[in-house]
Specification:
DNA-binding, homotetramer, 170 residues, 10 helices
Chain lengths: 170, 170, 170, 170
DNA sequence: CATGAATGAGGCTTCATTCAT
DNA sequence: AATGAATGAAGCCTCATTCAT
């Protein structure tokens, strides 16, 4: 039940936005009574917070396979490929975050920031002149690529990815 | 008065989102009565639509100076510099669009698409292998850069810009 | 202009009711500005009152031709024929009254009461046992006939009229 | 609660009209919160529709005792007596209908039409020359009598009723 | 006489939330 | 754990009315 509510809520928050998605519609889509939401989460904002936590948790999982990698170019390539390897279920969570970014002032909204250290170190190892700028550029583009992936049909994406890899020389 | 309403609405839509910004708060910030909003725009959605139109109109203005340029590299450089040369007033409009992108399915939300033709032609003239992919990559990054500019303090941006210019070889 | 407003208002009051007909719609249908209504009538209720007066005035005109009649049966027949001889323009005014009858407690709403004296005297002259009851019955039926005429297609009405005349032996 | 709302609404619709009776006043008179109205009926119009259905249902009940009658004169007399035997609770519903007749174009507003078949057959059995016209006249007068009963003090009504019965020879 | 921009009270409705069951 | 009836605050919107022009 709790699971249902969360799934329903993410979908609706992602497609309509937090304020436009009524608790009623969430309950309905989840197939539960409206009251149950408040038994589990106390607040609509509580539900939001929970989903935010889950999203971040899910994002951290993406870090796992990277930790085993050692070669900097492999690491960067792996990270840049993430937008292409995102499941539909997962995209909901990211869309949900993207929809809130501009209205909520919460550092956690910058999902890709968790890659900062890894990327920065990689560029340093690769002996870039200004690894910090390079990292910022990289993360900025990474985010752009994710937005692109959330929207576009996936056909062209591989070509774009290759293009990006070339630009970063990896 | 009409102007006041629009300004107030853009600000609030941008910072809180369409649904979270109440007509009352819009009227208050505009210094007018709530009813006046509906005399001018019929709907809250009518107001939204009007603002969307204005945003697009403002964006088209950015095309004007480009039309006089001839050298492809200059054109591309000029376009890529846009995120840095955006006035604060202007940023409101773009933030507003960004906040709605994921909830509204309207082709017009892809603001940067208006540069497609210019960019594509430029890459073609520059004899790129795959100008289409290059264009898509370019626009994708352009959008990412704009998002970045909307958020970050502007110090670092010049460095990032230079970095991008280098990557596109312009 | 004043005339336009009144005509427009009667029509809308008749077809939608007093409260449902907005001053805006009245002005629009009259082809004037909304403010003009208040220059001429001070109130929406003032407009209503004016129309009520006009309606009564128009109704009194129906008495004129009767005053020249002398034979009681001719008088009664003439009165009973009124519902059939009502112009469309005039029907608007009566519909308007009918729509308000049940919500407004104003003696003037009983339009047909102005015939009371004439009818009562007629039945008295005709030596009816209980002229008062007969009068009340007559006026009651008269009103029913008017309602009928406001609604029905007019084909059958002549037959009904004849039938009524027979019942009253006139 | 639901019952309360309906009762309150009928009363107010009857005495003030649909548009003049605010949902707030309905809720207040019903002793419930305003929101509850919309939980039960979705719309103010939904509430109206429900009441219309109830009214018609209540009216159909009047048909029941007639179905056991066989003699045509008894049937007609019974029907013509209805306006005198209407409870106050019931009168509310009819007043409500009468107030809407001229603004709503709905066949169901002609409440007395449900007696048509019964009346027509009766006059046919009684061998009237033109049973259709007679029926129309009868129903028209019936409606007039009901309007009369809704308004007048009930003293005189018995006399009028007798008078009507005489006119129809029953 | 006439307009039309502007107002603010109030109308209908939705919403998040509570509570008895 | 779960429901669903009930609430009241707030939301969007319309309305009658005013006033400067």
């Amino acid at each position: 039940m709790r699971e249902n509510i969360i799934n329903s809520a993410v979908s609706l928050f992602a497609t309509q936005g937090f304020h436009a998605a009524s608790t009623r519609s969430i309950a309905q889509k989840a197939g539960v009574s409206e009251g149950l939401i408040f038994r589990h989460f106390k607040n609509k904002e509580g539900l939001l917070e929970k989903i935010l936590e889950i999203t971040i948790e899910k994002f951290k999982v993406l870090m796992k396979p990277i930790e085993t990698l050692t070669h900097p170019k492999v690491i960067l390539k792996h990270i840049l490929t993430i937008p292409l390897n995102t499941s539909d279920d997962y995209k909901k969570y990211i869309k949900f975050i993207q929809g809130m970014r501009w209205q909520v002032n919460d550092e956690r909204m910058n999902l890709f920031q968790i890659f900062y250290e890894k990327v920065f170190t990689s560029f340093k190892v690769l002996d870039y002149d200004d690894p910090e700028t390079e990292t910022q550029t990289f993360l900025m583009i990474l985010e752009g690529a994710m937005s692109h992936a959330l929207r576009q049909n996936t056909k062209m994406n591989l070509l774009i990815l290759d293009n990006l890899l070339k630009k970063f020389n990896i």
